[in-house]
Amino acid sequence: MLDTSFTRPPSHRESTRRRWWRRLAALLAAALVCGVVVAVYQNGWRAVSYAHCGSGDWVGPAELRAAGVPEDEAGAAECMGVSASSNFGVDALSLVMTRIDRQNREAAADPNRATVTVGVLTPVPKQAFGAASEDQVRDLLEGAAQAQQDVNDDPKGPALQVVVANEGSGEQGWAPVVDQLKRRTAAESPLVAVTGLGVSTKETLLGAHSLADAEIPMVGAVLTANGLNARGVVEGFDAGEDVPSGRIDGFFLVSPNNRREAEALADQLADERGTSSYQLVKDLNRDDFYTVGLANALQDAFRDGVDRFPITFAGDAGEGEIAFSLEDAAKRACSNKGDAVLYGGRSSQLLPFLKQLAADCPRHTTVITGSDAASLDPADVPADVRVVYAALADPDALGSPGFNPQAAKRFGEFRERFADPARLANGWAIMEYDAMKVAAAGIAEAVQGDQQAVPTPNSVRGRIGGHISPNYQIDGAGDSFYFDEDTGEPRGRAIQIVEIEDQKRTPVRNYPG
User: Fold this and answer.
1) What is the pTM of this model?
2) Distance of CA 402 to CAs 386, 422, 434, 497, Å?
3) Fewer C-beta within 10 Å: the chain N or C terminus?
């Protein structure tokens, strides 16, 4: 059929109008693109670099450069900043961050309770030889999430919301990230305490000083460096002009220090026949307070039998150089005639060292070290190497009635509630759980149990500081403890001596706190 429909062609005026609107739309689109590009450029390209990070208050290269971070580190595409839901680009953190986000929403939806926020400050790793591993950070956050759930299920004050503050894999973003936490003290759900605090490095010390200046209480979860406490005088570290000196008020710790760990190890090894001479292997990185303090403490505790010439490696070098340095250290340790090796380094470097020992040493070797070794998987440790370490919270020891019947019962109840009990072995979840319980106790006491009241950070700090005697202990999952009034370190907390042999982990002794 012939199509007789007809469409009138546009008039000259209509054509001109349409062309004008098209040009205007194109100009607006171009302006929008330019605006985005300018905004991205002004923010250090963070909209491009951090699009994968998800919801959060992110730190871009511009902020890092302003904080004095070197150019090569400032441009690194890490999801540094504060978030309650992001996995920070690490798939291993997705489940626990989803849980924290859900529990935050549940807390906000409760009409009968006010909410306050507790921050978890931690580095999120991105390299194999970092100070903390993905497993350790995931377990730390699981401990925080479990504590949040337990506190919110037992209303004694406002409900807890949790935010996670990633200060960067090397804590290089500590300054702008800590500033973000400080600004949250004025938020609708105000931040009133910070837990975690990262690992024992100079950046942790700097962050603690900054938080103390804002009167925000801090509870370190796994900090064991000698002197990294409220006194602010770290063993073997000269503060210099770039690091504040003096007290760090409101700084509390749930972990015993390296000296107590080394003393416990020396007591244990003194009972072993045929073990009387030791070779010290230590990390040369002076900015890692954990390794410096551990090496010094081991040398002092085993002083009568330690070879006066230590073997060293460069723990802060590039990955290839670290691997070569560890290989050389293992070969030199094997050529030494000592009965055992004292290892003053991180667990991320310990496993390759142990494997090299097994490859080079014709004899069965015992390696003695600190609490960071709890992250070792016994199945990965060579069968002809024995590792003896001081654990902050070994789940097998804590669950034994021989440890402390009342504490064992409390830990058993905690383990039943924990999402994945297999994740308790390295102690990070238990220690962060206890740190969160300290913060929660201070919050509840500051408002005297009033669920609608909101405390100030300073009032929480004062209440935590009141737990300075056995009459005012904190009952954590790992033990009961109180704080030294001068240092803020825990008192009454036991250390467990654990050994890995024949690829099995066995607690062998409880060292009383």
Assistant:
1) 0.88
2) 24, 21, 21, 14
3) N
